[in-house]
Amino acid sequence: MAKKVPNIVTPPPGPEALKWIQRDNEKMAPYNRPFYYPLVVAGGEGAVVRDVDGNEYIDWNSGLGVLNVGQCHPRIINAMMNKAKDFMHYSYTDFRFREPVEMADRLDQLLPMKCKYFFANSGTEANEAALKIARHSTRKQLFIGFIGSFHGRTFGTMAFSSTSLAQRRRFHPLMPGVTLVPYPYCYRCPYKLEYPGCDLWCVDFIEEWVLQKFVPPDEVAGFLFESIAGEGGYIVPPPEFLPRLKRLADKYGMLLIDDEIQVGCGRTGKFLAIEHWGVVPDIVTLGKAVGGGVPLSIAAARKDVMDLPPGAHCTTTGGNPVACAAGMAFLDILLEENLMRKATELGDYTLDRLKDMQAKYQVIGDVRGKGLAICIELVKDRKTKEPVDSKDFIGRLFRKGVLAVSGGVGVRIFPPLIISREMMDSSLDILEATVEEVNREYHGEN
Ligand SMILES: Cc1ncc(COP(=O)(O)O)c(C=O)c1O
Fold it and tell me: How confident is the model at residue 34 (pLDDT cuts 50, 70, 90)?
């Protein structure tokens, strides 16, 4: 009989976890603190995470959007081992090899534009490359990004990242030439308007107040955006937003740079989340899941846009053959196991269950998402929308054996796409019990 998960054998943090947390605190720069909860991961399988004390948890994080086909998929392991036996590394900065080209062949089948590719290691690097590609090709310097988005932590990408003050404090000045405007976050509209009565003021504002007052449109290379804002809490823009943004970009000759690092690679039920709105971007960045669990990232640009000359941009380990082998195995699994369809079906099922909970419990203010990129917002009061402390909430889930992280002020649900319906149900049961608990604290009995 299959083992029951979650399986908490030692209430966390157990003795091994405590030991490693202390060692970690002594050795490591405190850059990530505060961690969400005292978890020390030892490994896992599929959608199960095992800690150093032998506890097993259901994974709703996918290692932060990386493990779309789960932890240690046997086909990815095999692909990497076979490649590593023969070919570990040679630098794509100066030499050619086959693997990035083979990976590009696969991406040609999945992306909506005819592309040329740049391979790197992290999402941030892919975005950094996208900015250089856009400036170089348009000969323009300025960019527009969105408040509440996340694009990375280098000086260029940090200029667009705006989900937390801690990421920016004492690091200024960042890359100049970036103007941020509000993301279409309808549940908490920054303009305090309501959809659809707002008639997408968030797009008109850009034209009427930004492009006509202080950002000359003929100097703007493009928009950098997430088609669904990940760190912001899977904020799904209203249906007209991206088509209208595209029209605005076309009107002034600006590029659409679509950061799909978190919501791409099949997570939302389509390879790119932007496909839900039928909009074709000019540049797409992929990271996280595209390497199947190892560092790999890609900036893909329309062929006529990717005009960087030789020597203009590169990185030593980008397109590493072992990483490409893992990436190709990931893409094969995604397609052969119909995981995008599964993400849609299981995502719809999960959203239905969450909406049922929302009807039952006052404390659930908002439920949103696409595929398996889902977020719930817990509120003390549905009118004021004052958020419940999501860190406390995910701590409770953790102790019951479900691993989740916050997103904006909400709680994100983004498990590996291979998670079984049974495991999803068990984790949603745990969520519901926890929601009930918190609901009682703020609203009494229902
Ligand atoms: C949308 C988005 N872009 C870029 C990044 C940066 O990726 P990385 O941490 O691999 O540099 C992230 C990471 O969370 C992300 O969610």
Answer: low
**Alpha-carbon span 433 to 313, nearest angstrom:** 51
Tens digits of residue pLDDT in 304-351: 999 999 999 999 999 999 999 999 999 999 999 999 999 999 999 999
pLDDT 10s digits, 237-268: 999 999 999 999 999 999 999 999 999 999 99
What confidence score (pLDDT) does residue 31 get?
Answer: 76
Secondary structure (DSSP) of 35-91 = PSS---EEEEEBTEEEETTS-EEEESSHHHHT-TT-BT-HHHHHHHHHHHHH-----
Whether residue 147 contacts residue 180, with contact meaning beta carbons closer than 8 Å, is answered with yes
Give me ligand 1 centre to Cα 433, in Å: 32
Please say whether the beta carbons of 416 and 69 come within 8 A. yes
Which residue out of 261, 285, 296, 317 has the highest number of ligand 1 atoms within 8 Å of its CB and is therefore the one to mutate?
Answer: 261
Residue 226 CA: which ligand 1 atom is closest? 1
335: helix, coil or strand? helix
Q: What is the model's pLDDT at position 1?
A: 43
3-class DSSP state of 280: coil
Output the CA–CA distances (angstroms, integers) from residue 333 to 79, 210, 419, in the order listed: 12, 44, 14
Residues 6+ apart with CB under 8 A from 407: 230, 231, 232, 233, 234, 375
Q: Which residues contact 367 (CB under 8 A, 6 or more apart)?
A: 351, 354, 355, 357, 358, 374, 375, 376
pLDDT tens for 193-211 read 999 999 999 999 999 999 9
Instruction: Kindly give, in sequence order, each residue whose CB lies less than 8 Å from that of residue 152, ignoring residues fewer than 6 positions away.
Output: 122, 123, 124, 125, 127, 128, 158, 160, 161
Residue 381 CA to ligand 1 center (angstroms) comes to 32
CB 443 within 8 A of CB 432: no
- H or E segment at 175? none
Instruction: Measure CA 98 to chain center.
Output: 29
pLDDT > 70? residue 444 = yes
Q: Could you report the per-residue pLDDT of 95-148, keeping only the tens digit for each?
A: 999 999 999 999 999 999 999 999 999 999 999 999 999 999 999 999 999 999
What is the chain's alpha carbon radius of gyration, rounded to the nearest angstrom? 22
**Domains (ranges, CATH) in the chain?**
15-69+338-443 (3.90.1150.10), 74-336 (3.40.640.10)
